[in-house]
Amino acid sequence: MKWIDFEKPNTVEDAVKLLSDSGGNARAMAGGTDLIVMLRVGHPRVNPDVVVDIKSIPELNELSYDANKGLTVGAAVECYKIYGDDNVNSHFSALNDSATLIGGTQIQGRASFGGNLCNAAPSGDSIPNMIAHRAVATITGPSGTREVPVEDICTGPGQTSIESDELLISINFPSNGAGFGANYIRFIPRNEMDIAVAGVGASVTIEDGKFTSARVSLASVAPTPLLVEEAGEALVGQPVSEGAIQKAADLAKAAAKPISDMRGTADYRKHLCDVLTRRALTTAVERAQGAS
Amino acid sequence: MTTADYERNMVLATDTDYKVIGTRPVRHDGADKVTGRAIYGADFDAAGLLHGKILRSPHAHAKIVSIDTSKAEKLDGVKAVVTSKDFPEVGNQWLKDNILASDKALYVGQAIVGVAASNPHVAESALGLIDVEYEVLTPVLTTQEAMATNASILHDSLTTEELGKDTGVVSNVASHTQHVKGDISKGFAEADVVVEREYNTKTVHQGYIEPHNATALWSPDGRLHVWCSTQGSFVVRDSLAELLDMPVSMVRVTPTEIGGGFGGKIPIYLEPVAALLSRKTGAPVKIVMSRKETFEASGPTPGSQIKIKIGAKHDGTITAAYAWMAMEAGAYPGSPVGAAVQCVFSTYDVENSTIDGFDVVVNKPKTAAYRAPGAPNAAFGAEQAINELAEKLGMDPIELRLKNVATEGTRRPDGPVFGRIGAKEVLEAMRDHPHYQSAKAEGTGRGISIGFWFNIGFDSACNIAVNKDGSVNLTEGSTDIGGSRTSIAMHAAEVLGIPVEDVRPSVVDTDTIGFTAVTGGSRTTFATGWAAYEAAQDVKKQCIDRAAIIWDVDANNLQMEDGVISSQSDSELKMTFKELAEQLSDTGGGISGSASVNPSGVGGSFAGNIADVSVDPDTGKTTVERFTCVQDVGKAIHPSYVEGQMQGGSVQGIGWALNEEYFMNDEGTMTNSSLLDYRMPTSLDLPMIDTVIVEVANPGHPFGVRGVGEANIVPPTPALANAIYDATGKRMTSLPMSPGAIQSADAE
Q: What ipTM, to 2 d.p.?
């Protein structure tokens, strides 16, 4: 039986000190909806000496919007606060596709986008959505603060580019102009309480009937959530059409590198990338056109 | 959801001349359950309780070369360690090996060593200090692999029994049985249309929410007391007595409340280990399985390979039917193929049939019963073939079934002749139901199916004692899984003419009631209900006799109706049951009645489904849009509980049809042993299940009861397969019909 220390610092400084003092054997905990489950089952990747609860740190609970700076979501902000926020609902409503999808009601009272990102599951339901929104993570460590695009955070299942002595502070979503629309959808065999067999986050900006920017990101079809840049680039400059969307879907399907496991075969997952990219882009376009 | 323009839960009652039977009272154990006061096995506590954990095999097939527990025994807090060597030498070796393996591990999760410690964490740590040396062998994971000529052999001592005779040939096929009726060559020669296909199904679990658990206390006087979640406390008692080589009277089993079983809580797993650990320590020892252990080391229902061939004349008369069924027994012989052969064609009156059944061992957990064991596998093939035949003949699938339906006097393909059964009435109720009469919604497919389960009788006992306030204490030995306390109490209340709320039913331990067989085989309301009926008749007779003494009249002149004792000749002589109860002590003493029964008048049950589905053409995902279950229950004692059984069986069948499976890797490890990835349907995956209770009274029961627990899981898999075919043109011959499987299948 192993003892695990539990710490609950009130400042970023104290939290970073706890992380760096642990010699790499500390884990930051937001809602704990993944971490506690992994500790209970003795997950091989999760064997900390110290658990650092970061929910008392003000910066990690920030949820604010500024037309110039965009939306800032602290690393510990729970899903229910995201989908209950007026600014999110006015300017970033597609984030709710993920916030309302993660877990059930009880889990949404604890789970955060920050935790979902740091858990770095290939199936993390908020990550492709954040990537589609061009989100940037703010990370603080002993040597200072740095900003990293979300697509560069996950490096493998359960692994991130955040160092063991660093702390994810917040995620920033840049403001979107008129004609922006986004969507995240996943496929699961059941209707709830399941893990994505494949998931797609998509965003588009449409001006005068043409795509001026677009992003497609995939879940559960590679060791990390994937940004498929070529799918978005293929849309830019094109008039909105089913054909253009299908081209992007084909590129997303081609970029997917899934495995076969109990949740689905590689072939089926690639097929789903096509179907879901088409559906996510179509919804994003509808939202963009509805918003303009 | 819009309000249905029809009765969602219909009861087609035939006999309504009852006061209590057929009503829907609140269950006696309801308050304890909804307030969390009911005691389940994992809640059990006792002074000085030790906690047990079990080291399990990581290999699906391996020789156990050596076991070294010395380091674990030295760990602070470890109180005892047991292995198969701690069993007495007598007794069934395979039964013992499935509790604690001796020479071979035959599935991932098979128990090897038990540890008792002062707390569960120490016990867990101790498992990591045990060294087991294995010689890993090739695993055999399907009947196809196991029956191959060069297959890796599980048991050197297992020889095939061919049509009842030992061949002496060592193989993974434990037995081949065959039922022949008429001459199928002649039957197929007479057929104008023949359909023939092979079907495959995967291993699935009952999915009860409460994992297995057991606490044992072996007292210094040699008596063993066990508290556990079981469907049959007497089965646990008798199995323990056999394994531990002691008289049954030295073992006492107290059944705790049970969080589901569906057949999976008939065998024993943890009880003997807890008992051996308690014998070594002198302390009570509790062991509780995790969900992963429950999947890997309890008894699921088998994967199977089934070939069906059916021939019919142009007018729809079925002339011949052939079934070849091989079912996985798991690590030790005893698959449910023996039940499957009794069900596969029993809905139909077929002149010529042959049924071959093979019981095959594979490197998976030993299968246990699961709700009509074997019958759903068989029906998945046979009932798709019947629909295919209907399509080829251009007949309505219900009309084709009605044309060939078995009725009273029909000889089943496996021998027995049916008494009064309700297959025809079920099909007619399906045909006439608003669901079947309605047009399909745009984009949906519709499928139907019917299934049979024979049900069982067996031993039951019941005691009833009269309290002075006019209530009665009813004690019985049947684990209450689906509300049986109340339905059994209703039998007594009906006979005594008192409200069911005046009956106090208790499920008691094996020292306190006569031998009672398992809650299984849909027998509990039928047989234990019958024991309560007889015990109540005993009480009633004694009440009449006592009134005769009090009034000094001839008892033959007295009657007891609606809880009132009266004289047929003197209208002045009247006394309620309550008034009599008050006087008992002063007029000769209390009254109690008892009965032990083993009734033979078992009535089989038929259940049918109408299912509407839509299938996403892009993803292959099936949505069950509408689902109706029709079942002949004989007589519904408590219609709400009967509807619950029908809906529950339907839901389990829907899960089995669409997503559930043991997903095994090549090494024989189940990779989805959690409720996250073993995809049972949630409430969000299901429509409201409409029910129709058909009552064709079973003449073999005083109130006409048939068993209701099992037949309802038989038709869902083929009904959904037929609906998916109707929606997509894809004939799904393998379970589960998951989105990926449907998406990649070709249309016919």
A: 0.94
